[in-house]
Amino acid sequence: MRRFSALFLGIALLTCSLRLVSRAQTPATQQNTGKENKNDAEEGEKRFRENCGRCHMPPESLSPREVKAVVRHMRVRAMLTAEDERLILKYLAP
Amino acid sequence: MSHCEGQQNQPIAPSAERDEWMNRASVALFAILWTASGLRAQSDPPNVPILSGAFAFIGSTTAGATTYQPILAPVLVVPIGDKWLIESRADIQGFFAREGGTTGPYNGQFLASLDYLQVDYILNAHLTITAGRFLTPFNFYNERISALWIANLEDSPIIFPIGTRTSASSNGGMLRGVAISRPAWSLNYTAYFSATSTTENLQSGRAAGGRAGIFIPRLGLEVGGSYQRFLQNGDSNQSGAYVVWEPRQIPLDVRGEYAHSPGGKGYWLEGAYRLASSRTVSGPVSRLQVVARVQQFFKGNPAPEDLLPSADVNQFDFGLNYYLPHDVRLNGSYGRAYSSAGNFNVWNFAVTYRFVFPAWPGEKQ
Fold first, then answer.
1. In what helix (H) or strand (E) does residue A71 lie, and over which residues does it extend?
2. Which residues in chain A have Cβ-Cβ distances shorter than 8 Å to B178?
3. Do B224 and B353 belong together in one domain?
4. Which of A63, B44, B72, B160 has the fewest CB atoms within 10 Å distance of its CB?
5. What is the pLDDT of residues B293-303, one digit of tens each?
6. Is B302 part of a structural domain of the chain?
7. Is A86 on the interface with B (CB under 8 A)?
8. Are residues B33 and B177 in the same domain?
Protein backbone atom coordinates (compact mmCIF):
# COMPACT_ATOMS: atom_id res chain seq x y z
CA MET A 1 0.00 0.00 0.00
CA ARG A 2 2.82 2.35 0.93
CA ARG A 3 4.55 1.46 -2.31
CA PHE A 4 1.35 2.32 -4.21
CA SER A 5 1.17 5.75 -2.51
CA ALA A 6 4.77 6.53 -3.33
CA LEU A 7 4.24 5.42 -6.93
CA PHE A 8 1.07 7.53 -7.24
CA LEU A 9 2.80 10.59 -5.79
CA GLY A 10 5.71 10.08 -8.16
CA ILE A 11 3.44 9.84 -11.20
CA ALA A 12 1.50 12.90 -10.04
CA LEU A 13 4.66 14.99 -9.66
CA LEU A 14 5.97 13.80 -13.02
CA THR A 15 2.69 14.58 -14.81
CA CYS A 16 2.49 18.06 -13.34
CA SER A 17 6.12 18.76 -14.14
CA LEU A 18 5.59 17.67 -17.75
CA ARG A 19 2.49 19.85 -17.93
CA LEU A 20 4.46 22.83 -16.65
CA VAL A 21 7.35 22.15 -19.00
CA SER A 22 5.06 21.79 -21.99
CA ARG A 23 3.51 25.16 -21.16
CA ALA A 24 6.80 26.83 -20.42
CA GLN A 25 8.24 28.75 -23.36
CA THR A 26 11.77 29.25 -24.56
CA PRO A 27 12.88 32.88 -25.11
CA ALA A 28 12.57 32.41 -28.89
CA THR A 29 9.04 31.08 -28.59
CA GLN A 30 8.17 33.91 -26.22
CA GLN A 31 9.43 36.44 -28.74
CA ASN A 32 7.33 34.90 -31.49
CA THR A 33 4.30 34.73 -29.24
CA GLY A 34 4.81 38.37 -28.27
CA LYS A 35 4.78 39.38 -31.94
CA GLU A 36 1.75 37.20 -32.62
CA ASN A 37 -0.05 38.70 -29.64
CA LYS A 38 0.67 42.21 -30.93
CA ASN A 39 -0.63 41.34 -34.39
CA ASP A 40 -3.66 39.65 -32.86
CA ALA A 41 -4.36 42.68 -30.67
CA GLU A 42 -4.12 45.02 -33.70
CA GLU A 43 -6.43 42.80 -35.72
CA GLY A 44 -8.66 42.54 -32.66
CA GLU A 45 -8.92 46.33 -32.43
CA LYS A 46 -9.88 46.48 -36.11
CA ARG A 47 -12.58 43.86 -35.64
CA PHE A 48 -13.78 45.55 -32.48
CA ARG A 49 -14.33 48.80 -34.40
CA GLU A 50 -15.92 47.04 -37.38
CA ASN A 51 -18.29 44.85 -35.39
CA CYS A 52 -19.08 46.57 -32.11
CA GLY A 53 -19.25 50.06 -33.60
CA ARG A 54 -21.99 48.93 -35.98
CA CYS A 55 -24.50 49.16 -33.13
CA HIS A 56 -23.14 51.12 -30.20
CA MET A 57 -20.42 53.22 -28.61
CA PRO A 58 -18.00 51.06 -26.63
CA PRO A 59 -18.23 51.32 -22.82
CA GLU A 60 -15.65 53.68 -21.35
CA SER A 61 -13.81 50.92 -19.53
CA LEU A 62 -13.97 47.16 -19.13
CA SER A 63 -11.96 45.24 -16.58
CA PRO A 64 -10.29 41.99 -17.66
CA ARG A 65 -12.70 40.12 -15.37
CA GLU A 66 -15.70 41.41 -17.35
CA VAL A 67 -14.29 41.00 -20.81
CA LYS A 68 -14.95 37.32 -21.45
CA ALA A 69 -18.63 37.52 -20.54
CA VAL A 70 -19.11 40.71 -22.58
CA VAL A 71 -17.46 39.28 -25.70
CA ARG A 72 -19.31 35.95 -25.43
CA HIS A 73 -22.57 37.88 -25.05
CA MET A 74 -21.71 39.86 -28.18
CA ARG A 75 -20.65 36.76 -30.10
CA VAL A 76 -24.16 35.36 -29.77
CA ARG A 77 -26.04 38.64 -30.08
CA ALA A 78 -24.05 40.38 -32.82
CA MET A 79 -23.14 37.22 -34.78
CA LEU A 80 -19.41 37.50 -34.28
CA THR A 81 -17.35 34.70 -35.73
CA ALA A 82 -15.22 32.46 -33.51
CA GLU A 83 -12.15 34.26 -34.89
CA ASP A 84 -13.69 37.67 -34.11
CA GLU A 85 -14.29 36.53 -30.53
CA ARG A 86 -10.70 35.33 -30.12
CA LEU A 87 -9.13 38.47 -31.59
CA ILE A 88 -11.38 40.93 -29.79
CA LEU A 89 -10.53 39.16 -26.52
CA LYS A 90 -6.84 39.60 -27.35
CA TYR A 91 -7.45 43.31 -27.91
CA LEU A 92 -9.54 43.91 -24.80
CA ALA A 93 -7.55 41.68 -22.45
CA PRO A 94 -4.06 41.27 -23.98
CA MET B 1 -26.12 -1.04 15.15
CA SER B 2 -25.74 0.62 11.81
CA HIS B 3 -23.31 -0.43 9.14
CA CYS B 4 -21.22 2.70 9.68
CA GLU B 5 -21.01 2.27 13.39
CA GLY B 6 -19.82 -1.26 12.78
CA GLN B 7 -17.06 0.06 10.58
CA GLN B 8 -16.04 2.70 13.11
CA ASN B 9 -15.73 0.13 15.87
CA GLN B 10 -13.36 -2.06 13.92
CA PRO B 11 -9.74 -1.74 15.06
CA ILE B 12 -7.49 -0.02 12.54
CA ALA B 13 -3.88 -1.06 12.29
CA PRO B 14 -1.37 1.86 12.56
CA SER B 15 0.25 1.02 9.22
CA ALA B 16 -3.12 0.90 7.41
CA GLU B 17 -3.97 4.29 8.94
CA ARG B 18 -0.69 5.72 7.65
CA ASP B 19 -1.33 4.31 4.18
CA GLU B 20 -4.80 5.79 4.16
CA TRP B 21 -3.38 9.18 5.14
CA MET B 22 -0.68 8.91 2.46
CA ASN B 23 -3.29 8.13 -0.17
CA ARG B 24 -5.40 11.13 0.76
CA ALA B 25 -2.38 13.43 0.87
CA SER B 26 -1.21 12.19 -2.54
CA VAL B 27 -4.60 12.83 -4.14
CA ALA B 28 -4.90 16.28 -2.53
CA LEU B 29 -1.38 17.24 -3.61
CA PHE B 30 -2.04 15.99 -7.12
CA ALA B 31 -5.23 18.05 -7.33
CA ILE B 32 -3.48 21.21 -6.10
CA LEU B 33 -0.52 20.80 -8.41
CA TRP B 34 -2.70 19.99 -11.39
CA THR B 35 -4.77 23.09 -10.86
CA ALA B 36 -1.73 25.25 -10.20
CA SER B 37 0.13 23.95 -13.24
CA GLY B 38 -2.89 24.79 -15.36
CA LEU B 39 -3.25 28.26 -13.86
CA ARG B 40 0.38 29.15 -14.25
CA ALA B 41 0.22 29.61 -17.99
CA GLN B 42 -3.41 30.61 -18.10
CA SER B 43 -3.71 33.57 -20.48
CA ASP B 44 -7.46 33.62 -21.16
CA PRO B 45 -9.55 36.06 -19.12
CA PRO B 46 -11.65 34.32 -16.44
CA ASN B 47 -15.26 33.24 -16.91
CA VAL B 48 -16.90 35.72 -14.56
CA PRO B 49 -20.65 36.48 -14.70
CA ILE B 50 -21.44 40.14 -15.25
CA LEU B 51 -24.30 42.42 -14.35
CA SER B 52 -24.76 45.05 -17.00
CA GLY B 53 -27.56 47.23 -18.30
CA ALA B 54 -28.80 50.77 -17.87
CA PHE B 55 -30.88 53.11 -15.82
CA ALA B 56 -32.75 55.83 -17.68
CA PHE B 57 -35.18 58.61 -16.98
CA ILE B 58 -37.27 59.60 -19.97
CA GLY B 59 -39.58 62.56 -20.24
CA SER B 60 -41.82 62.66 -23.27
CA THR B 61 -44.53 64.92 -24.66
CA THR B 62 -46.57 63.51 -27.53
CA ALA B 63 -49.40 65.61 -28.94
CA GLY B 64 -49.40 67.63 -25.71
CA ALA B 65 -49.60 64.63 -23.35
CA THR B 66 -46.58 64.42 -21.06
CA THR B 67 -45.30 61.20 -19.53
CA TYR B 68 -42.32 60.35 -17.31
CA GLN B 69 -40.65 56.97 -17.25
CA PRO B 70 -37.86 55.85 -14.91
CA ILE B 71 -36.54 52.57 -16.32
CA LEU B 72 -34.08 50.02 -15.01
CA ALA B 73 -32.95 47.38 -17.52
CA PRO B 74 -30.50 44.97 -15.88
CA VAL B 75 -28.68 42.41 -18.02
CA LEU B 76 -27.17 39.27 -16.48
CA VAL B 77 -24.61 37.32 -18.49
CA VAL B 78 -23.22 34.02 -17.19
CA PRO B 79 -20.60 32.28 -19.34
CA ILE B 80 -20.09 28.62 -18.47
CA GLY B 81 -17.04 26.92 -19.91
CA ASP B 82 -16.24 27.65 -23.55
CA LYS B 83 -19.57 26.63 -25.01
CA TRP B 84 -22.41 27.78 -22.80
CA LEU B 85 -23.94 31.13 -22.03
CA ILE B 86 -26.95 32.15 -19.98
CA GLU B 87 -28.17 35.69 -20.62
CA SER B 88 -31.13 37.65 -19.43
CA ARG B 89 -32.56 41.16 -19.53
CA ALA B 90 -35.49 42.50 -17.57
CA ASP B 91 -37.30 45.78 -17.88
CA ILE B 92 -38.59 47.44 -14.72
CA GLN B 93 -40.24 50.74 -15.38
CA GLY B 94 -42.54 53.32 -13.94
CA PHE B 95 -45.05 55.14 -16.12
CA PHE B 96 -46.43 58.46 -14.93
CA ALA B 97 -49.03 60.39 -16.92
CA ARG B 98 -51.78 62.93 -16.33
CA GLU B 99 -55.20 61.45 -15.57
CA GLY B 100 -56.91 63.22 -18.45
CA GLY B 101 -54.02 62.94 -20.90
CA THR B 102 -53.14 66.64 -21.03
CA THR B 103 -54.86 67.74 -17.80
CA GLY B 104 -55.36 66.54 -14.25
CA PRO B 105 -53.00 65.15 -11.64
CA TYR B 106 -50.24 62.69 -12.45
CA ASN B 107 -50.90 59.03 -11.77
CA GLY B 108 -48.37 56.29 -12.10
CA GLN B 109 -47.85 52.58 -12.14
CA PHE B 110 -44.87 50.26 -12.16
CA LEU B 111 -44.49 47.52 -14.74
CA ALA B 112 -41.97 44.72 -15.14
CA SER B 113 -41.26 42.37 -17.99
CA LEU B 114 -38.66 39.84 -18.97
CA ASP B 115 -37.18 40.72 -22.36
CA TYR B 116 -35.09 37.59 -22.60
CA LEU B 117 -33.84 34.68 -20.55
CA GLN B 118 -32.01 32.31 -22.83
CA VAL B 119 -29.49 29.52 -22.77
CA ASP B 120 -27.03 29.50 -25.66
CA TYR B 121 -24.92 26.56 -26.68
CA ILE B 122 -22.12 27.37 -29.12
CA LEU B 123 -21.98 24.11 -31.03
CA ASN B 124 -19.25 25.17 -33.45
CA ALA B 125 -17.95 28.17 -35.40
CA HIS B 126 -21.13 28.28 -37.49
CA LEU B 127 -23.97 27.32 -35.19
CA THR B 128 -25.30 28.48 -31.84
CA ILE B 129 -28.41 26.83 -30.41
CA THR B 130 -30.63 29.01 -28.24
CA ALA B 131 -33.55 27.96 -26.06
CA GLY B 132 -35.79 29.97 -23.77
CA ARG B 133 -37.15 33.46 -24.16
CA PHE B 134 -35.32 35.62 -26.68
CA LEU B 135 -35.76 38.89 -28.58
CA THR B 136 -37.56 38.16 -31.86
CA PRO B 137 -34.94 38.47 -34.60
CA PHE B 138 -36.94 40.34 -37.22
CA ASN B 139 -34.81 42.90 -39.08
CA PHE B 140 -32.19 44.33 -36.72
CA TYR B 141 -33.73 47.08 -34.56
CA ASN B 142 -35.29 44.82 -31.93
CA GLU B 143 -32.32 42.58 -31.32
CA ARG B 144 -29.41 44.94 -31.76
CA ILE B 145 -30.26 48.55 -31.06
CA SER B 146 -33.50 48.70 -29.07
CA ALA B 147 -31.59 48.65 -25.76
CA LEU B 148 -31.93 51.89 -23.78
CA TRP B 149 -28.23 52.68 -23.94
CA ILE B 150 -27.91 51.97 -27.65
CA ALA B 151 -30.91 53.48 -29.48
CA ASN B 152 -30.07 56.94 -30.83
CA LEU B 153 -33.68 58.12 -30.44
CA GLU B 154 -35.94 57.12 -27.54
CA ASP B 155 -39.02 56.32 -29.66
CA SER B 156 -38.96 53.05 -31.57
CA PRO B 157 -39.85 53.27 -35.28
CA ILE B 158 -43.50 53.18 -36.35
CA ILE B 159 -43.02 49.85 -38.15
CA PHE B 160 -41.47 48.23 -35.05
CA PRO B 161 -44.56 46.05 -34.31
CA ILE B 162 -44.26 44.37 -37.74
CA GLY B 163 -42.58 41.00 -37.22
CA THR B 164 -42.19 41.44 -33.45
CA ARG B 165 -45.72 40.73 -32.20
CA THR B 166 -46.89 40.12 -29.57
CA SER B 167 -44.27 41.40 -27.15
CA ALA B 168 -41.04 41.72 -29.22
CA SER B 169 -39.93 38.50 -27.48
CA SER B 170 -40.36 34.86 -28.46
CA ASN B 171 -40.56 31.74 -26.32
CA GLY B 172 -39.05 28.74 -28.05
CA GLY B 173 -35.89 27.78 -29.87
CA MET B 174 -33.52 29.44 -32.27
CA LEU B 175 -30.55 28.50 -34.43
CA ARG B 176 -28.12 31.26 -35.34
CA GLY B 177 -24.58 31.94 -36.36
CA VAL B 178 -22.24 32.84 -39.17
CA ALA B 179 -22.78 30.41 -42.05
CA ILE B 180 -19.87 31.62 -44.17
CA SER B 181 -16.97 33.75 -43.00
CA ARG B 182 -14.42 35.15 -45.45
CA PRO B 183 -12.00 38.07 -44.91
CA ALA B 184 -14.03 40.19 -47.34
CA TRP B 185 -17.55 39.23 -46.25
CA SER B 186 -19.61 37.04 -43.96
CA LEU B 187 -23.12 35.64 -44.06
CA ASN B 188 -25.07 35.52 -40.79
CA TYR B 189 -28.43 33.89 -40.19
CA THR B 190 -31.11 33.08 -37.62
CA ALA B 191 -34.05 30.67 -37.74
CA TYR B 192 -36.54 30.37 -34.91
CA PHE B 193 -39.85 29.05 -33.71
CA SER B 194 -41.97 30.57 -30.97
CA ALA B 195 -44.97 29.25 -29.05
CA THR B 196 -47.95 31.26 -27.86
CA SER B 197 -47.80 32.48 -24.30
CA THR B 198 -50.31 34.65 -22.50
CA THR B 199 -48.57 34.43 -19.14
CA GLU B 200 -48.22 37.87 -17.60
CA ASN B 201 -44.82 39.47 -18.40
CA LEU B 202 -43.90 36.50 -20.62
CA GLN B 203 -46.23 37.01 -23.58
CA SER B 204 -45.24 35.75 -26.98
CA GLY B 205 -46.88 34.91 -30.28
CA ARG B 206 -46.85 31.63 -32.18
CA ALA B 207 -44.57 32.28 -35.09
CA ALA B 208 -41.70 30.94 -37.15
CA GLY B 209 -39.20 32.92 -39.15
CA GLY B 210 -35.67 33.76 -40.00
CA ARG B 211 -33.22 36.41 -41.02
CA ALA B 212 -30.08 36.49 -43.14
CA GLY B 213 -27.54 39.27 -43.55
CA ILE B 214 -24.31 39.91 -45.41
CA PHE B 215 -21.62 41.99 -43.75
CA ILE B 216 -18.79 43.56 -45.76
CA PRO B 217 -16.22 44.87 -43.25
CA ARG B 218 -14.18 46.89 -45.79
CA LEU B 219 -17.23 49.03 -46.55
CA GLY B 220 -18.70 48.89 -43.04
CA LEU B 221 -21.90 47.71 -44.72
CA GLU B 222 -24.46 45.13 -43.69
CA VAL B 223 -27.63 44.35 -45.63
CA GLY B 224 -30.16 41.69 -44.83
CA GLY B 225 -33.70 40.44 -45.03
CA SER B 226 -36.25 38.88 -42.66
CA TYR B 227 -39.32 36.74 -42.97
CA GLN B 228 -41.88 35.69 -40.40
CA ARG B 229 -44.98 33.53 -40.56
CA PHE B 230 -47.31 34.57 -37.75
CA LEU B 231 -49.26 31.46 -36.82
CA GLN B 232 -52.19 32.80 -34.81
CA ASN B 233 -55.18 35.15 -35.32
CA GLY B 234 -55.34 33.87 -38.91
CA ASP B 235 -51.91 33.11 -40.33
CA SER B 236 -50.08 35.99 -41.99
CA ASN B 237 -46.71 36.78 -43.53
CA GLN B 238 -44.39 39.62 -42.59
CA SER B 239 -41.23 40.44 -44.45
CA GLY B 240 -38.52 43.03 -44.11
CA ALA B 241 -35.12 44.28 -45.16
CA TYR B 242 -32.45 46.33 -43.41
CA VAL B 243 -29.24 48.20 -44.03
CA VAL B 244 -26.49 49.35 -41.66
CA TRP B 245 -23.67 51.45 -43.07
CA GLU B 246 -20.78 52.76 -41.04
CA PRO B 247 -18.09 54.26 -43.28
CA ARG B 248 -14.61 53.95 -41.77
CA GLN B 249 -13.41 57.44 -42.65
CA ILE B 250 -16.08 59.49 -40.87
CA PRO B 251 -18.04 58.95 -37.63
CA LEU B 252 -21.36 58.55 -39.43
CA ASP B 253 -23.89 55.74 -38.81
CA VAL B 254 -26.63 55.14 -41.35
CA ARG B 255 -29.35 52.63 -40.50
CA GLY B 256 -32.65 51.79 -42.06
CA GLU B 257 -35.39 49.18 -42.21
CA TYR B 258 -38.31 48.33 -44.44
CA ALA B 259 -41.15 46.07 -43.27
CA HIS B 260 -44.33 44.77 -44.83
CA SER B 261 -47.37 43.07 -43.26
CA PRO B 262 -51.11 42.81 -43.95
CA GLY B 263 -51.57 45.60 -41.39
CA GLY B 264 -49.37 48.03 -43.30
CA LYS B 265 -45.91 48.69 -44.61
CA GLY B 266 -43.28 51.33 -44.14
CA TYR B 267 -39.66 52.24 -43.66
CA TRP B 268 -37.35 54.35 -41.53
CA LEU B 269 -33.94 55.74 -42.31
CA GLU B 270 -31.65 57.25 -39.68
CA GLY B 271 -28.33 59.04 -39.84
CA ALA B 272 -26.21 59.82 -36.79
CA TYR B 273 -23.05 61.93 -37.00
CA ARG B 274 -20.54 62.55 -34.22
CA LEU B 275 -18.85 65.96 -34.39
CA ALA B 276 -15.36 64.50 -34.56
CA SER B 277 -12.74 63.79 -37.15
CA SER B 278 -12.67 60.13 -36.17
CA ARG B 279 -14.62 57.65 -34.08
CA THR B 280 -12.56 58.21 -30.94
CA VAL B 281 -13.47 60.82 -28.34
CA SER B 282 -10.94 63.64 -28.62
CA GLY B 283 -12.58 66.56 -26.85
CA PRO B 284 -15.87 67.94 -25.53
CA VAL B 285 -17.29 68.58 -29.02
CA SER B 286 -16.49 65.05 -30.20
CA ARG B 287 -18.91 63.77 -27.55
CA LEU B 288 -21.83 65.37 -29.37
CA GLN B 289 -23.88 63.37 -31.86
CA VAL B 290 -26.49 64.76 -34.22
CA VAL B 291 -29.28 62.38 -35.22
CA ALA B 292 -31.98 62.64 -37.88
CA ARG B 293 -34.61 60.08 -38.83
CA VAL B 294 -37.34 60.01 -41.47
CA GLN B 295 -40.07 57.43 -41.58
CA GLN B 296 -43.20 56.68 -43.55
CA PHE B 297 -46.01 54.27 -42.81
CA PHE B 298 -48.73 53.21 -45.23
CA LYS B 299 -51.79 51.66 -43.68
CA GLY B 300 -53.00 48.24 -44.81
CA ASN B 301 -55.72 46.36 -42.95
CA PRO B 302 -54.48 46.65 -39.38
CA ALA B 303 -56.12 44.70 -36.58
CA PRO B 304 -56.09 46.31 -33.11
CA GLU B 305 -53.52 43.78 -31.87
CA ASP B 306 -51.13 44.79 -34.67
CA LEU B 307 -50.25 47.96 -32.69
CA LEU B 308 -49.90 49.87 -35.96
CA PRO B 309 -51.33 53.35 -36.70
CA SER B 310 -54.84 53.45 -38.12
CA ALA B 311 -53.81 56.00 -40.76
CA ASP B 312 -50.86 56.79 -43.01
CA VAL B 313 -48.08 58.63 -41.15
CA ASN B 314 -45.02 60.61 -42.25
CA GLN B 315 -42.66 61.57 -39.46
CA PHE B 316 -39.27 63.14 -39.04
CA ASP B 317 -37.19 63.33 -35.87
CA PHE B 318 -34.14 65.38 -35.02
CA GLY B 319 -32.06 64.68 -31.94
CA LEU B 320 -28.88 65.54 -30.08
CA ASN B 321 -26.97 63.03 -27.96
CA TYR B 322 -24.19 64.05 -25.64
CA TYR B 323 -21.95 61.28 -24.31
CA LEU B 324 -20.69 62.39 -20.89
CA PRO B 325 -17.82 60.63 -19.10
CA HIS B 326 -18.64 57.52 -17.03
CA ASP B 327 -21.11 56.17 -19.60
CA VAL B 328 -23.79 58.78 -18.99
CA ARG B 329 -25.69 60.03 -22.02
CA LEU B 330 -28.01 62.99 -22.41
CA ASN B 331 -30.50 62.84 -25.21
CA GLY B 332 -33.01 65.36 -26.52
CA SER B 333 -35.14 65.10 -29.63
CA TYR B 334 -37.97 66.75 -31.49
CA GLY B 335 -40.23 65.07 -34.01
CA ARG B 336 -43.20 66.07 -36.11
CA ALA B 337 -45.74 63.54 -37.34
CA TYR B 338 -48.05 64.23 -40.29
CA SER B 339 -51.09 62.00 -40.43
CA SER B 340 -54.62 62.08 -41.82
CA ALA B 341 -55.68 61.41 -38.20
CA GLY B 342 -53.99 64.68 -37.14
CA ASN B 343 -50.51 66.23 -37.06
CA PHE B 344 -48.63 66.36 -33.78
CA ASN B 345 -45.25 67.07 -32.14
CA VAL B 346 -43.12 64.60 -30.22
CA TRP B 347 -40.60 65.89 -27.66
CA ASN B 348 -38.27 63.59 -25.77
CA PHE B 349 -35.60 64.09 -23.16
CA ALA B 350 -33.61 61.31 -21.54
CA VAL B 351 -30.69 60.69 -19.21
CA THR B 352 -29.16 57.23 -19.48
CA TYR B 353 -26.53 55.65 -17.29
CA ARG B 354 -24.98 52.46 -18.58
CA PHE B 355 -23.23 50.11 -16.17
CA VAL B 356 -21.27 46.89 -16.20
CA PHE B 357 -19.57 45.12 -13.32
CA PRO B 358 -18.64 41.58 -12.31
CA ALA B 359 -21.46 39.70 -10.60
CA TRP B 360 -19.03 37.50 -8.73
CA PRO B 361 -16.51 38.59 -6.09
CA GLY B 362 -12.87 38.18 -6.98
CA GLU B 363 -9.49 39.75 -7.27
CA LYS B 364 -9.36 43.21 -8.86
CA GLN B 365 -7.19 43.27 -11.96
1. helix A64-77
2. 79-81
3. yes
4. B44
5. 999 999 999 88
6. yes
7. no
8. no
